Structures are given as C-alpha cells and as structure tokens.
From TrEMBL:
Family label: Belongs to the protein kinase superfamily. ADCK protein kinase family.
Domain ABC1 atypical kinase-like: 83-335
Protein's UniProt keywords contain Kinase: yes
Keywords carried by this UniProt record: Kinase, Membrane, Transferase, Transmembrane, Transmembrane helix
Name of protein: AarF/ABC1/UbiB kinase family protein
Species whose genome carries this gene: Laspinema olomoucense D3b
Any Pfam family: ABC1
Residues that span the membrane, as ranges: 496-516, 522-544
A GO molecular-function descriptor: kinase activity
InterPro entries xref list: ABC1_dom, Kinase-like_dom_sf, UbiB_kinase
CDD domains, sorted: ABC1_ADCK3-like
Length: 550
C-alpha cells in the first residue's frame, strides 16, 4: 500500500508542504499518521489553490473532477470549472526539438511557415499556427517535453493516497482506488494525441448525417494523419471567433438576434444527437472549444475529452431526462437505481424517493422558462450521491456537457429553454424507437414471422399431443437457489439430530445413575453426562456463530 507513496518521496514532500501551506487539516492528519474519521474536503477555493500549487498535472486532475458532478457538490464543480493552468509557454527551442523528433524530417520540408509564438498554452500542450507547403493553414499542437515522467509519478501518488484513504469508512462507499485509476487512464489518454485525432474523426462521421439539423452547419477540423503522432497533432486551422465573442454577421438576410437563437438551437440538436443517438459525445463543450466561423458554420475543437454510452445507459438517460422534465420523483428514483446497477443493493429506496420528491417539489410551481435544467440535473446526481448510489462516470460527463451547453445557449438567447428544445426531439426519438427507422421493412419482417409461426404451429401441436398420449413427455423444472435451501434444511436437520442425541445421552445417564447403586457403574453415568455436555456446548456455539439465534 505504501509502495506507491515511497517511490516518489520528493514529490510526496512537496505535496505535504502544499497541503500544510493551504491548511487542509484532514490531509495534514492523514499524512502525519494522525487519527482520521470521515474524509472532509477543503473549501472549494482552497482545493482550487492546492491544485494550482501542485502544478500542471494536478490542474488537469482538477479539470477532470469538474466534469464529475456525480462525485462533488456544485460549488466545487463551479470552482474547478474555472481552473485553468497558469503555465508559461515552453521556449521555442524545446518545442522545435520535439517537433523535429516527431516529424523525423526537417521542419522546412513540411511547413512553409511556422509561427514560433504559441496561440494557446495549456498544462498538457501548446498550439502554434502554421502553413503547409501546399498553402493549407494548420494548427500544430505540441506536447510539453518531459510530461510523461511527471504524470506517471503523480498518478502513482494519487493511487497511493487513494489506497490510504480507502481504509476509512469512506472507502466502503466510494471506490477511491478505482477512481484514481480512472483518472490515471484519462490523463494518459490526454497524452496520446492520436486518440484525440481519432475522436475527432469519429465525431465528424457521426455528425455527417442527421434528421434534426443541417450537417453542413457543423465543422470538425480535419486531422493530417501523415504528420500526427502521439505527441504531435496537426489539424485544420479553423478561421473564426469563440462562440460567445463572434459578431454573427456572416449570414445575409438574417439579423443578429435570429442568428444567435439559431446557433443555440443548432447546438442543442447537435449535442442531443451525440448523447442520445450516437452514444459518443464531445464532453468539454466550453465556450473556448466552440467557434463561429466566417462562413456561418459552428466548429467543435479539442476532442481530447469524450464520453461514451452503451445502448442501455442511453435508454435510461433518455427516460431520466423525461422524468426530470415531468418532475416525476418515483420514476427518477427507479431509474437512478437501474443506472447504479449492482452498487444499489444497500440503498434505502424509501429515503431515495423521499429525497427526490423533496427536490422536485421545489420546481412544481416554476415555469419552464425559469427552470435551469443543468441545475436540476446536478441536484438529481447529488441526491444519488447522498444516498450512496455510484452513478456511471459518463453521467457526470453528460451533466457537465449539458451545463456548458445550457450556459452557452442562454448567453446566445436569453429566452432559451432547454426543456422546450428537447421535448420535440424526445418525441421523435421515442417514435423512431417504437416503429424503427424503416417501418415498412419492420412490418414485412413481422408479417413473415407470423406466417412462419402459423405454418409451424400445427406440426408442433401434433408433436405435443403425441408425446402426451404416449406418456413420453418430460418436464424439466429449474428452481433458483435450491442448493442454498437444501444446505439450510440439512443444517437444521443436523442440529435437530444433535439435540435429540444430547437429550438421549442425558436421559441415559440419568437411568444409569439411578441403577448405579445396584450395578456399580458410576463411571458410565459420568461419561454420558460429559458427552452430552460437550455436544450441547458445541451446538450452542455453532448456533451463536451462525448469527441466526432469532
């Protein structure tokens, strides 16, 4: 358990100093071997400062935590959402070395121009603007040198701390080691730019067709795979402005207000399709990752963080969204339990329903225009967390994506209402699930199945009657948990037999004792009493140890 912590004593000492400097009492007691009870998080601002002081990797951990409202209260999510790595750019000399190593050819043979000043610098990478030899403008994203070693060291420390905290009662309710491993996987994924490029390609393919919006209005930067490696990402340059800073003057004949409303509607439909139809969505749609282009399109960039949903989770999420819109507390409770799966065995269902009912009652008299859907989604996840339901990680990513989307849409259109926007989409979605994508083909398939059934039924009925009349029909009945019932009955029968044996030994000893004066066999009476006492004592101990005295 301590091996992960002792491997990096210098980094551990640095973390210890940061914790002491920021005054997080719980971690101070933990690291000094003091007595600890239920873990207590520091105030949101203090937690943010700790991540900033610990450096770029922990800033990224904080950013990942900001996508998990299923783990943290909203005040922490709000504080960590604004967390940005205040990291100075890497000197061009070091960046150039990395680019040359990854390209394995002279930069001059690839780029006509390459700006040495970065247009953006983050905790993982920095981006430069360049022009290829064919005149195509591109963005060159370069990973910060030496980052792999630092991340592996910090992931090891995170896992060690998670193992340490999991000893407490808190660890019985939350899989802290699993969570640390999940964040470790996410951090390693951020280091592999080929994954980010593949995510962008998949997103572009999924959004190339839609019945809810015009696919030509969405742009995903093309990846230049012949120049892209794990540490270098070369992609199409998007010529536009951040979504909230654009002037919206690129669509003739449509005023600025109407354009902003159209963009808000477009983004809602794009992300609803990603989440509820494709099961693969851009999980970090903050304003800096959405651009309004000169030609009127909207571009989604930075596909390093994505969410995935299997069909079952998709269906549960859709029903949960509908239950939230309808303020149905009982349905929300049942769907939350279904989402949690095996981790919901110990949940108190009546308490869960009561908490959801109390939550949703606050919204009963509120008009849809006043309702913040992302706020409601956060509170639904918070109720699940307070009742110790472990929701899937993609629920947190989905909630954060919806919160970002709703915030951007309300900025674009003050009259925007998420519930009004998604209701017609959900109606269409349920209709498609009911009749399928090709209703005529489905109807013909059903008719064919009925025809086959009608042709096979007489023969199967004839075989059944023949077996009944010939007494060759055999019924196979399978009962669940019969073996457990058999063991319980065997145990009860054994205890009853031993009880009868003890009683018989005592009665025999009494008879022998009454005849001892005549036959002089006192020793036999003592043996019988001793045997009865030992067996009786063993029987009592076994019953007490089983815990089934009552």
């Amino acid at each position: 358990m301590w091996s992960n912590l002792t491997q990096s004593s210098a980094r551990q000492r640095e973390i210890f100093e940061v914790v002491l400097r920021n005054g997080w009492d719980y971690m101070r007691r933990l690291l000094t071997g003091g007595k600890t009870d239920e873990p207590k998080l520091p105030p949101p601002a203090v937690l943010r400062n700790i991540f900033v002081d610990l450096g770029p990797v922990y800033v990224k951990v904080g950013q990942l935590l900001s996508t998990r409202p299923d783990l943290l209260p909203q005040e922490y999510i709000d504080e960590l959402t604004a967390l940005q790595a205040e990291v100075p750019p890497v000197p061009w000399e070091d960046v150039e070395v990395t680019i040359r190593q990854q390209l394995r050819q002279p930069i001059e043979d690839v780029f006509a121009t390459l700006n040495t000043e970065p247009v953006a610098a983050g905790s993982i990478a920095q981006t430069h603007r360049a022009t290829l030899k064919n005149g195509q403008e591109v963005a060159v994203k370069v990973q910060r040198p030496g980052l792999e070693k630092i991340i592996e060291q910090d992931i090891s420390l995170l896992t060690g701390l998670a193992e340490l905290v999991s000893i407490a009662e808190f660890g019985d309710s939350y899989d802290l080691v699993g969570l640390a491993e999940e964040f470790g996987t996410a951090l390693r994924g951020e280091l592999n730019f080929t994954e980010e490029g593949a995510n962008g390609d998949k997103l572009r393919r999924n959004l190339a067709q839609s019945r809810w919006f015009e696919p030509k209005k969405i742009a995903i930067p093309e990846i230049y795979w012949n120049l892209t490696t794990e540490k270098l990402l070369v992609m199409e340059w998007v010529d536009g402005d951040p979504i909230l800073l654009a002037k919206y003057d690129g669509m003739p004949g449509i005023d600025r207000v109407a354009q902003r409303k159209a963009i808000a509607n477009l983004l809602t439909r794009v992300f609803f399709q990603q989440i509820c139809l494709d099961g693969f969505f851009h999980a970090d749609p903050h304003p800096g990752n959405l651009f309004y282009l000169r030609d009127g399109r909207v571009a989604l960039i930075d596909c390093g963080m994505v969410g995935r949903m299997d069909p079952r989770t998709q269906q549960l999420l859709i029903e949960m969204l509908l239950a939230m819109v309808n303020l149905d507390a009982q349905r929300c409770s049942q769907l939350a339990i279904d989402m949690a799966g095996s981790t919901s065995k110990t949940v108190n269902i009546s308490n869960l329903e009561s908490d959801y009912d109390r939550l949703l009652r606050r919204y009963y008299n509120m008009s849809l225009s006043e309702l913040s859907f992302s706020q409601l989604f956060y509170e639904v996840l918070e109720v699940s967390r307070n009742n110790r339901l472990r929701m899937p990680a993609n629920m947190g990513l989905c909630a954060k994506a919806i919160a970002n989307l709703e915030g951007i849409a309300r900025n674009l259109d003050p009259e925007y209402n998420f519930a009004d926007q998604i209701k017609p989409l959900m109606t269409d979605l349920f209709g498609r699930q009911l009749i399928g994508e090709a209703p005529l083909q489905g109807l013909l398939r059903t008719a064919l199945d009925i025809k086959n059934l009608s042709l096979q039924s007489p023969r199967q009925f004839e075989v059944l009657l023949d077996r009944v009349t010939s007494e060759s029909l055999i019924w196979n009945v399978a009962m669940k948990d019969v073996e457990a019932l058999r063991r319980t009955l065997d145990s009860a029968a054994n205890r009853l037999s031993f009880s009868i044996l003890v009683g018989s030994l005592i009665m025999g000893a009494a008879v022998v004792s009454s005849q001892a004066a005549v036959s002089n066999v006192y020793y036999l009476s003592d043996i019988l009493f001793a045997a009865a006492s030992l067996i009786g004592l063993w029987l009592i101990i076994s019953i007490l140890r089983s815990g089934r005295l009552r």
